[in-house]
Structure formats: C-alpha cells, structure tokens
C-alpha cells in the first residue's frame, strides 16, 4: 500500500448543484466559516493560546462563545462544545446515571442514543410511536414508560426525546414530556441534533434539563462537532473537574474540539442566530414541497401538516419504475445526479428522506420538476 500513495493526495468531491441530504443541509458552511476553515485548519490550531482550559481561551474568543453566547442561544446555564451530539449524550448519561439504571427514550431515537446508553451501562425502555403513517410519539407514553420501569423495581436515570427525530422530522410535545419527567424527578435530555441551529429551540422554555445539538448537521460547521447545555445543578456533574488534573473536565476528557470545527462554528454563529428567526418560512417551504411531491404520488410520512424541513417519503411509483428501469434501483440516484441534484442515497426508491432547509423556492420548484420529469420518462412495471 505504501508504494501507491498518490490516490490519497488528490481527493475531490463530485458536488451537485442542489444537495437535499438532511445530514448536510444545515451544515453547509457560511463564507465566514470557509475562511475560518483555512485559517484554523492546522492540527491543534488553538492550543498555542491555551493556559490549561480550552474553553477559557480569550483570543480567538472561545471563552466568550462557550461561556456567553452559546448557553444563551441554547437556553442553558452552562454549555460546552463536544465532538458531536453522540458524545454529548454519552457524557450526560455517564455523568448522571449509575450502571444498571434505565433510560427512557422515544421509539424514533437515533441509533447513537442507543449506543450512548449501552456504553454507559444503561438499560432502555422505549416510548413506542403510533406507527405508519404518522409515527407520532405521544407525550403520555413517557409517564407509562417511567412507571413500567419503576414497577420492575428499576431506577430511571434519564429520559431522552429526539426533537425532531432523524427519520420522519416529527416534533413531539417536548414541553409536555418535560413536565412528566419533572413530576417523576427524572432528568430530561432533549436531543436537538436537527433543531439547534435550524429552528428556535430553548431548553429553559421547554423545560429540558440538558440539550444537545450537532454543529455539522445544523450549525453550519465542519465536523464532527457538537454542543451540550445543561442547568446549573446538572452542569456541576456533567462538567466535573478532575481530582488530579487541574482544570480538566472528566467527561470531556479535558479538551474536545481544538481547531477548525470549533472555529467554523463560531464563524457561522451570527448567521445561525439570524436564520433561526426565519424558521416559519422554512416550514412553509417544506409544506409546499410536500404538497408537490404528493401530487406526483410520493407520500409524506410523519406529521401532517409537517413542521420541519426533514421529510420521509414512501414512493411506490418510483419503486415500480425501478423494477424495469435499466439502472434498476439506482435509477433515481443517477437520474437526479444528471439533473444536478444529490442527497438521496444510491439504491433507494421506495423509501427515502430529504431536506428543504435553506433552499430557495426556485430551487425547490426545480427539484419537484426533476421528480416529475423522471417519473414521466420511465415506463412503469
């Protein structure tokens, strides 16, 4: 392998004109972040400025961001930057729960929430969704799930709600879930990986004790990078200082993101703060797009009317085409690519998800027209 290294030196992306991948729509870098990426891309590029606590670096203004602007934005008393939402969830679970405790989570939870609980030595009780086609998570299901654990003489160490969930883009009643958790004295973690940075979400207003976000999914940052915010009393445990290593927080292993991901998040932050003020416009665009897709026979799953840019579709008409298309189940990916559109995974036709976040109405009209032309150009089974 070492005699053929040139292939690593010139790695390029085949970038389409319009990207509808939910993982990437909210993470597209601002011009300011692209400048920061070049400026701060070298290794541990902020460590020259560190006196022992990365989050207290004054130049660049990391301290002002982590201990000022970020917690205010999250509606938290304390906040930190992490390597991603999954690391944030694990840090909270590991700090606040005991091995053998139970964590209650929604049935639409991201797989990383499950892995974080497993890694922390926790058992899981799910709040089941209502199933197809809406996949709704009822808030009262949390009361039932907590009671189920107690009846088995277990301890509920934490409850987690995915807001919105990463499959269907559903927004459950987070305030109602918070009230239930507080009544049962259970810490409540809101997983806002697709919310923080896209839409207004405030942990204090909702009643969440802990809030988690993803920079590379929703805060216009290069990744991996995440955020976590917590109430003052829980922050003392989550951000506990080592007994032997001065100024180093145990759950974060001392320091987390030490370069470009953090600086791109900071550089994009003014834009992110501004764009969440226009969330209603994003929701209206998503709803108009969903109406257009359904007029083509491509059915939206999840909340109706929809309240988020992330959408999951069932497309029997595209699946039928795939049975005869020359390119088989890859026809949709390739046909969209020819029209300058990417973001739906190769091989998917019957079920897929996409995002409309940040796209103009003209761009969304172009995507709808592309689907219409693709359907019209193929014979059906």
Question: If you had to describe this structure to a student in words, what would you say it looks like?
Answer:
The chain is of the alpha/beta class and 381 residues long. The chain folds into two domains: 18-25 and 278-377, Aspartate Aminotransferase, domain 1; 31-275, Type I PLP-dependent aspartate aminotransferase-like (Major domain) (Aspartate Aminotransferase, domain 2). It is 40% helix and 14% strand. It has helices at 6-9, 22-25, 31-39, 62-74, 85-96, 111-119, 140-151, 174-183, 203-206, 215-218, 232-238, 260-275, 279-295, 316-322, 331-338, 361-377, and strands at residues 18-19, 78-82, 102-106, 123-127, 156-162, 188-191, 210-214, 226-230, 299-301, 310-314, 341-342, 351-355. It has a seven-stranded mixed β-sheet with strand order 2-8-7-6-5-3-4, with helices on both faces. A three-stranded antiparallel β-sheet has the order 9-10-12. Strand 9 and strand 10 (310-314) form a beta hairpin. Helix 3 packs antiparallel against helix 12, helix 5 packs parallel to helix 6 (111-119) and helix 13 packs parallel to helix 16. The longest helix is centred in the C-terminal third of the chain and has 17 residues, at 279-295. It is globular and about 70 Å long. The mean pLDDT is 95.
């Amino acid at each position: 392998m070492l005699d053929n290294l040139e292939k690593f030196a010139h790695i390029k992306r085949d970038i389409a004109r319009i990207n509808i991948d939910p993982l990437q729509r909210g993470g597209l870098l601002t011009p300011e972040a692209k400048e920061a990426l070049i400026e701060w891309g070298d290794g541990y590029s902020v460590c020259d400025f560190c006196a022992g606590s990365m989050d207290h670096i004054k130049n660049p203004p990391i301290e002002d961001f982590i201990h000022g602007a970020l917690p205010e934005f999250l509606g938290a008393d304390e906040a930190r930057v992490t390597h991603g939402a999954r690391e944030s969830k694990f840090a909270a679970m590991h700090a606040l729960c005991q091995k053998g405790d139970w964590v209650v989570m929604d049935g639409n939870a991201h797989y990383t929430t499950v892995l974080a609980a497993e890694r922390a030595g926790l058992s899981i009780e799910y709040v089941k969704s209502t199933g197809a086609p809406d996949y709704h998570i009822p808030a009262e299901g949390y009361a039932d799930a907590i009671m189920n654990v107690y009846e088995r003489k277990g301890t509920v160490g934490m409850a987690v709600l995915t807001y919105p969930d990463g499959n269907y883009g559903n927004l459950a009643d987070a305030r109602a879930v918070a009230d239930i958790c507080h009544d049962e004295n259970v810490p409540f973690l809101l997983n806002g990986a697709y919310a923080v940075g896209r839409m207004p979400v405030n942990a204090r207003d909702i009643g969440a004790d802990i809030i988690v976000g993803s920079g590379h999914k929703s805060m216009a940052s290069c990744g991996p990078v995440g955020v976590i915010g917590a109430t003052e009393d829980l922050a003392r445990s989550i951000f506990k200082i080592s007994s032997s290593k001065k100024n180093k927080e145990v759950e974060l292993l001392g320091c987390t993101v030490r370069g470009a991901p953090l600086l791109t998040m900071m550089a994009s932050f003014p834009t992110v703060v501004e764009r969440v003020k226009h969330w209603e416009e994003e929701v209206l665009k998503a709803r108009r797009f969903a109406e257009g897709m359904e007029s083509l026979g491509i059915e939206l799953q999840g909340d109706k009317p929809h309240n988020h840019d992330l959408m999951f579709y069932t497309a029997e008409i595209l699946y039928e085409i795939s049975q005869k298309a020359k390119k088989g189940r890859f026809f949709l990916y390739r046909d969209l690519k020819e029209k300058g559109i990417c973001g739906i995974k190769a091989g998917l036709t019957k079920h897929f998800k996409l995002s409309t976040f940040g796209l103009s109405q003209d761009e969304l009209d172009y995507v709808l027209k592309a689907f219409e032309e693709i359907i019209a150009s193929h014979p059906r089974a």
